[in-house]
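Action item from last meeting closed. Structure (743 res):
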């Protein structure tokens, strides 16, 4: 069978089974693209085709690989992905879902035997300084090639030799016809909404979303891609708007929510209830006064206009702090992908489920299983899950239940070991997925090929109990440090970059360190000491080889305390919130050599000085518990330097009739000294008062309301009393004399 015959046979079988097939065209790039054009001609008349390539072509719509995300939420008969240039696992993850049932995914690749050892632009991106491209491996591509050659439904054609290595046919029979979708007898949404559902699963999800008509409710809709969850959310939004309700829809970007709006728009139009459709502001207005409005997550968190309901699409791509804010709406739906390109439902399950359980919301869960665009068991979906580890998961809880850190064995997870043990790879990567709210297919590439990354794990009875991913940073030559100091971004060196370009430390890139990129403990073993045990083992292994260990993360009190317990100390707090996480970021260091100690000490001193004034400026809205934790996690306590007069003012306010406003700077310095003192013993509430008033300079009325004081006067008196032990601990002779006046 020749190429045309292979393409035609694949398309015919795919169409008959309502599945998809994958055609690999391996060899010279020009020959491969020419073969892709001939394959498109062979699949039938006028197919809807998109080619993702950097090359100009005349036989199909072309999208640059960097813009492959435009295919998310769309469908094509054929998608051609050119892997010769600008190829990444992310691009593959974006395009594979755009192929409709009966369609073809065509990969144009280098010769399969040579591809793993070729050096590409993707390898250049992995070669972070001081590493060169020669240090990058081809392990990801080697594994990918293996899946292409082994998996059912995947054809391989050598375009150089003109030979067919594998025809890719599975012998699948005709697809079973879909059954009718029933309308629930007690449905309150319009019948037209249920008639728009394509599967019983989708109708079940829509029925669950009827709960959004009430209050104090949360609905969680989970599914793999292609199951119609966003369409169900759109039908719910349109139904609510038709009933006169105001619905806010949010997602990482409007592109993610486009399907929601398309379905809501179509339903409102079908009901003759669409009053206005503003493309610019993404607002659908209904004739009865209802609306569907899109806001980005940061804006939606403020619940503008006091909506009746909020629908969060691609919820797994947002962090818990952001998701938590949407629970302030009367009714909220969280629609999330379980095994997807943009975030993971497993991370959503582990972290946000805990918050939902603690809330006062009545939670309804629904899961969609049946694909809509293609039949269940589609071989291309199964292949993509395996190739990109979209369905990687940790070990089942039962095999680790009851384990202790003493039961665990520490071991390296080098790429060779991971490639040789698919079970180990899936467990380790599954835990790394849980460690971060947004894990990408590119993360698998980095794990297997990046020369600056090192993975370590604790295993119990052969199963991964905890895993850490370390990134080597620093050790940069002076010329590169000069460029970094002048503003050039240097890939793969996050901590040296922050300390150099933002904090103006020319020498920060010279010491070598390991940044803890991610660390995760199996959900069945959390809070049992596995994370600390794993960090301690990493420290024991690498302390003599580097100058520092470090970490940067979205700061919460619990996380700051965890890193502080493991010897990490705060050296920086970002002055803006992370757009995705909604948190301020903390940077912490754990020095392991004299060079590391020098780096830490100078930045710890600067951090303390910055926080003195920054908390009343850029960090004025920093959570006081985060500020307390960050300041307490320092190794260089502040020593208050007050004049005799300032000590008298503070002592008089603490023990007598003195006024805070007579010397606010003195109160600030004393608060900073207390909050960086490891021996300090004020109550958490009193320390929050120090942060809000003395360091963040909030008005008295706002402080009293924020900290639940019954009056401004009570708040002022409480602040004075909070300073009494500080005067006694740090005060000089003048402070003692003033204090004695009021004994």
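Sequence:
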């Amino acid at each position: 069978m020749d190429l045309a015959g292979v393409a035609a046979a694949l398309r015919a079988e795919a169409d008959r089974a309502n599945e998809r097939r994958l055609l690999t065209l391996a060899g010279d790039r020009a020959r491969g693209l020419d073969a892709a054009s001939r394959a498109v001609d062979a699949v039938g008349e006028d197919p809807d085709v998109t080619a993702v390539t950097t090359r100009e072509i005349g036989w199909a719509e072309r999208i640059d690989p960097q813009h492959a995300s435009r295919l998310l939420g769309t469908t094509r008969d054929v998608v051609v992905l050119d892997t010769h240039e600008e190829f990444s696992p992310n691009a593959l993850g974006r395009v594979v879902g755009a192929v409709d049932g009966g369609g073809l995914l065509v990969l144009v690749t280098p010769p399969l035997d040579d591809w793993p050892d070729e050096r590409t632009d993707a390898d250049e991106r992995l070669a972070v300084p001081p590493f060169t491209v020669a240090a990058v491996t081809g392990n990801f591509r080697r594994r990918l090639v293996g899946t292409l050659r082994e998996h059912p439904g995947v054809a391989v054609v050598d375009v150089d030799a003109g030979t067919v290595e594998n025809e890719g046919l599975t012998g699948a029979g005709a697809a079973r016809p879909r059954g009718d979708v029933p309308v629930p007898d007690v449905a309150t949404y319009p019948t037209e909404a249920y008639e728009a559902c394509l599967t019983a699963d989708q109708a079940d999800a829509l029925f669950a979303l009827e709960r959004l008509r009430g209050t104090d409710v949360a609905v969680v809709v989970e599914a793999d891609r292609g199951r119609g969850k966003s369409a169900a959310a759109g039908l719910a939004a349109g139904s609510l708007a038709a009933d006169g309700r105001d619905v806010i829809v949010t997602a990482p970007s409007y592109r993610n929510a486009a399907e929601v709006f398309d379905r809501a728009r179509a339903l409102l139009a079908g009901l003759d209830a669409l009053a206005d459709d503003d493309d610019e502001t993404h607002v659908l207005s209904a004739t009865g006064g209802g609306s569907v409005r899109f806001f980005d997550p940061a804006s939606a968190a403020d619940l503008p206009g006091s909506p009746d309901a909020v629908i969060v699409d691609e919820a797994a791509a947002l962090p818990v702090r952001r998701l938590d804010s949407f629970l302030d709406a009367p009714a909220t739906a969280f629609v999330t992908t379980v095994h997807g390109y943009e975030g993971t439902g497993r991370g959503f399950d582990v972290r946000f489920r805990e918050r939902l359980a603690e809330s006062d919301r009545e939670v309804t869960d629904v899961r969609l299983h049946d694909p809509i665009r293609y039949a269940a068991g589609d071989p291309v979906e199964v292949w993509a899950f395996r190739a990109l580890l979209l369905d990687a998961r940790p070990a089942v809880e039962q095999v680790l239940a009851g384990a202790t850190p003493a039961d665990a064995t520490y071991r390296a997870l080098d790429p060779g070991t991971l490639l040789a043990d698919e079970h180990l790879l899936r467990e380790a990567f599954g835990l790394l997925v849980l460690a971060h709210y947004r894990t990408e297919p590119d993360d698998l590439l980095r794990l297997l090929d990046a020369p600056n990354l090192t993975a370590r794990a604790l295993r119990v009875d052969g199963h991964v109990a905890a895993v850490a991913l370390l990134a080597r940073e620093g050790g940069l030559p002076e010329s590169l440090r000069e460029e970094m100091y002048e503003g050039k971004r240097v890939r793969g060196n996050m901590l040296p970059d922050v300390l150099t370009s933002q904090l103006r430390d020319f020498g920060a890139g010279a010491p070598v360190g390991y940044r803890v990129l991610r660390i995760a403990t199996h959900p069945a073993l959390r809070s049992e000491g596995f994370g600390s045990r794993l960090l301690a083992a990493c420290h024991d292994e690498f302390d003599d080889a580097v100058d520092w260990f470090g970490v940067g993360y979205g700061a919460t009190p619990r996380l700051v305390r965890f890193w502080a317990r493991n010897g990490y100390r705060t050296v920086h707090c970002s002055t803006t919130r992370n757009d995705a996480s909604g948190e301020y970021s903390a940077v912490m260091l754990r020095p392991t050599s004299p060079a590391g100690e020098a780096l830490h000490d100078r930045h710890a001193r600067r951090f303390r000085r910055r926080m003195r004034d920054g908390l009343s400026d850029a960090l004025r809205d920093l959570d006081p518990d985060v500020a307390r934790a960050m300041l307490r996690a320092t190794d260089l306590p502040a020593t208050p330097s007050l004049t005799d007069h300032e000590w008298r003012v503070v002592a008089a306010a603490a023990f007598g009739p003195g006024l805070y406003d007579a010397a606010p700077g003195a109160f600030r310095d004393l608060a900073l000294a207390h909050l960086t003192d490891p021996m300090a013993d004020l109550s958490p509430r009193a320390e929050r008062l120090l942060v809000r008033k003395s360091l963040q300079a909030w008005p008295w009325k706002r402080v009293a309301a924020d900290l639940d004081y019954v009056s401004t006067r009570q708040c002022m008196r409480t602040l004075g009393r909070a300073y009494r032990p500080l005067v006694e601990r740090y005060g000089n002779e003048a402070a003692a004399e003033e204090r004695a006046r009021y004994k």
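Note appended to the action item: The longest strand covers residues 463-474.
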